[in-house]
Amino acid sequence: MSIFSNPEFDNHEGVYSFADPSCLMRCFIAVHSTKMGPASGGTRFWTYVSDEEALTDALRLSKAMSYKNALAGIPLGGGKGVIMKPEENFERKDLFTAYGKAIDKVGGRYITAEDVGVSPEDMQTIKAETHYVAGLEEGIAASGDPSPHTADGVLRGMEEAVKHKIGVEGLGGITVAIQGLGHVGYDLARRLHNEGAHLIVADINKYLTRKAKEEFNATIVSIDQIHAQEADIFSPCALGGSINSDTLPDIQAYIIAGAANNQLFDNSIGTKLLKQGILYCPDYVINAGGIINVASEISGHYDLSWVDGKIDKIRSNLKEVFDQSARSRTPTNEVADSMARAMLSK
Description:
The protein is an alpha/beta fold. The protein contains eleven helices and eleven strands.
């Protein structure tokens, strides 16, 4: 397994691997860039089929965090932690204790936060071993679960997308198909319901879909059909890669706007979306609300008004992406990448 030959390697500043056989902890920590500040991004706890797959995920996600943080205008670079979920039985607290020690060994170049598969309790376990952690529920500058702020940013981004695509203000009467009802997806569903949107939902957790039906009058469909629904917006809020050559022909929505990272299977999908007339909101632009909230916590002086102002900037960032894309007939994902690279090269 070579880091340098991995297709997702992008001159990352550092890639670290750690293992603790006593608790089955194995992880990668990827630092893409520290130009804007210490690298920050959530830790993902997931089942990977190979070390190579986990490394690829860490490399790709850390680069996306560099782009996300740069466009969000926050003083953080891009990094990502990936823990490989053991196949054998394991003691969760011991595993996350070992991971916290691993982060501490990186010496502040990477500051972690919560991501897929990681709970607030896990974050507190990590915090006991290192100062380089944020998105906490307890402490002087603790900002709590970043998920509601991510959902807030996605909602505002949807408003901008609808305005750009069909000239409508607000989301009342808009139909949104949400793929994934985790922390962010469920909060987004609540916000959309409050705005008067119609919801179609899917999740592997049947309890969450039933709850969404009861609370928001959502229509439930299967997880493998959610992308194909007759909706105005398709909102991927689960794992990445859901927009691919298999799902793309079935998408009926004219806007894609969701909280998931790495929504496009590869960059070529952006070109196909443009040809199909589907407006894609680049994931790392629209889902930056959580890391914005974390950035305020990292500063040591949590300021909700600052967070709100930065999250509102997601709308203007998306407007710039949409306008540039329309002028140049360039896919929105490529426009966003160019904007981020320009900021990182200054």
